[in-house]
Amino acid sequence: MQKIIKNMPSISVVLPFYCIENPPIEAIKSVLNQEFTDFELILVNNNSSEKVLKEVEKITKQNSCIILLHENRQGVVFASNTGMQFAQSK
Question: What is this structure's pTM?
Fold first, then answer.
């Protein structure tokens, strides 16, 4: 994966998700509804089901501040590390 260079946000929020029955929509909305707007939201799919992934992809397409990554190695540590590698804030 190649790191995307754009305007550097002040904050990077990394949200890994895996093995869940429902997509993390409420968590995503919570981040997006903050008053502070200079951020990027890095979602890291960690082997979620197709149903969950499709719902997350819908939200990702609607918000330019969201980056969706995929980590195939199972576990929150791998997913978090993948997200942090792509974080663009200081």
Answer: 0.86
Which letter does DSSP use for residue 63 in this model? -
Query: Domain residues for 41?
Result: 11-86
Residue 22 is assigned to a structural domain of this protein: yes
In a domain, 49, yes or no: yes
Per-residue pLDDT, 18? 84
Do 18 and 48 contact (CB within 8 A), yes or no?
A: yes
Whole-angstrom distance, CA of residue 7 vs CA of residue 77: 27
Rounded mean pLDDT for each run of 10 residues along the chain, 90 residues in total: 65 90 90 94 94 93 95 91 92
- Position 46 in a domain: yes
> Of 41, 36, 32, 38, whose CA–CA distance to 8 is shortest?
38
Contact indicator for 63, 34 with CB cutoff of 8 Å: no
Specify the pLDDT at position 20: 74
| Helix 50-62 / helix 25-32 crossing angle, nearest 10 deg | 20
